[in-house]
Amino acid sequence: MSYRTNLFSKMVILILIMLIPVVLLYWYSNHKTTAVLRTELNRSNSNQLEFFQNQVNTHIELLSSWPNLLIHDPDIASFRRIFAESRYFDLDAINLVKRIQNKLSIQESSSNWETKLYLYSPSLGRVISERDARTYDKQALKESLISGWDVHKIEDGQNDRFKFSWITVSPYGIENPAENAETIIKLEFDSDNIRDMLDKFKGDGRHDPFYFREGTGVIYNRTSDRTLTNQLIKELSSHTLQDVENRTIVIGNEPYMVNSVKSSTTGWYLVDYMPLSDILKPIHQSNQLFYSAMICLLLMSCIAAYLLYVQVQVPVKQLIRGFQRLKQEDYSVRIEPKGRNEFSFLSERFNSMVEKIQQLFEHVYLEQIHVREARLKQLQSQINPHFFYNCFSFITSMAKLKRVDAVVAMSHNLSRYYRYTTRQERDVVPLSEEIEFVTNYLEIQRMRMERIHYTLDLPEDMLRIEVPPLIVQPLVENAVIHGIEADAEAGEIRVSGEQRDGTLFLIVEDDGQGMTQEEREAMLIKLAGTMDQEMGCGLWNVNQRLQLRYGGKGGIELAESELGGIRVTLSWPVEQQPLLKDKE
């Protein structure tokens, strides 16, 4: 079932399929709403900037009309004539100057802007202001005579100021007015007047308005963030500005909505900006609330799906796993009923069914055990004739050679062997008895071949372990026959044992001719199959007995010995008792 989509996964996927269209629809609606809001805000901001710009332009245009009005004033006309007849002041001229100064003062006071009016007489080289009548520098006047508004920057510490001036000449269109004009009227005002209006405009809810003209400078409001304003001006200057423009500029990962309107009177741009995060903050809060609600809804739906999964899917999966284990012949499987519902009833019926099946199979399994016991007895009986044949052949040879001592020794060892092999009723024997039996066999073979030397290296506590009878002798016999007898210079046999990780290892080695890797692999394949005449029955019987007793946990390994011949290792678990003994 691991590869299948369970009920919980299906329900979660279904919930996601239901929620995703809602989220997408909300996102689309929110995207459209944000776009409309930004468009309307840009339009509203542009309209407010245009209105403020018109106010400033109207005021400036009103100021620029003053010189045209004053140039036609009778006193100023009389002043022009008097100065044309005489270069010296008399009492009437002084009174006329006073009247002109009063009119200049009244005109300056008619506006809430701080302004200055100057009356120049090029013929006398005099200039009259509200409080003064003095000479002036004609060259400076000549340089300032330009068409339209003239703007000069005034250095004032950290606050840059600008002087705006407007000049009217009478008569109009005269050449070299600084020398030939009858009257020149000059109007001046400081950029602080515009700064005052910016402060008021900002106080009405604008973010941070300022005036800007490329190549001239910037008129800040008094609480302006000049660092940010300068960065915005740098970005604005990188592209040609339109008369009315809306633009989004990113400064330090923060987007700003920037609106600008150009003055048709002065050529200056009125610019205002505000962070988009401030504008979209309510929308973002609404988004967070909506997405939080969606997450909560998803979590609650997942919890509901999980409860349904626990109440339905888990019991079903337990039943499926129970049937799978039952299919694998594991009749110890049981399902723990939980609660009192339909699935607990099914779990109880399943347990009852498996228990009855287990009882039935136990009876059948006992019959199989008896058959296996008979098979073990048959395998042991196959070993005995093979050993006897070898022994009698040796006695016959010694008798022909008149080796009475060898015959007696063989008879003595054979009698001890006979006592050991006749105890067929035992399924296991102490390892010490099995080693004593192997010693008798080696002593007999040593009588035949004096070059045979053997070593028995087994721990004392290991000799008390019970092992299947006739389990080591066939290995020693193979070492003698196939290892030592086949090599005239060989004669060393070593029997050793060890116990580790709950497994017993019995090792038989010789210094005979040994086997190649390919021969060892071929031998292991034959041991797993049926017995043939070329292989012999000794080693095959041992392997079969280990497999019958211990299953896949017991067996034989073949390797190259450090003595030079073959190394045969028997292994089986020592904590697990033989199967026949358990059932007895």
Automatic annotation (TrEMBL):
HAMP domain residues: 310-362
Keyword list, A-Z: ATP-binding, Cell membrane, Kinase, Membrane, Nucleotide-binding, Phosphoprotein, Transferase, Transmembrane, Transmembrane helix, Two-component regulatory system
Major site of localization recorded for this protein: membrane
Pfam families: HAMP, HATPase_c, His_kinase
Catalytic activity: ATP + protein L-histidine = ADP + protein N-phospho-L-histidine
Residue ranges annotated for the Histidine kinase domain, each copy included: 400-576
Bilayer disposition of the protein: Multi-pass membrane protein
Cellular component aspect of the GO annotation: plasma membrane
This protein's name: histidine kinase
Species of provenance: Paenibacillus polysaccharolyticus
